[in-house]
């Protein structure tokens, strides 16, 4: 369970860092991707985008 929580945490960190680039290709603006302001900072939770990217990665893994 802790391994999955760490994996999700690191995935969210990666999405946060690549947010500008991913938004240019359409990810991050899907329904289910949450963006909110808290204490003057913008936070971004890409729930739908991460599910979509994991499905793509699983499909690629099956092909290889």
UniProtKB/TrEMBL annotation:
Which keywords does the record carry? Membrane, Transmembrane, Transmembrane helix
Question: So where does this one cross the membrane?
Answer: 44-63
Check the record and name the InterPro entries matching this protein: DUF2905
* Name of this chain's protein: DUF2905 domain-containing protein
Q: What is the lineage of its organism?
A: Bacteria, Pseudomonadati, Pseudomonadota, Betaproteobacteria, Burkholderiales
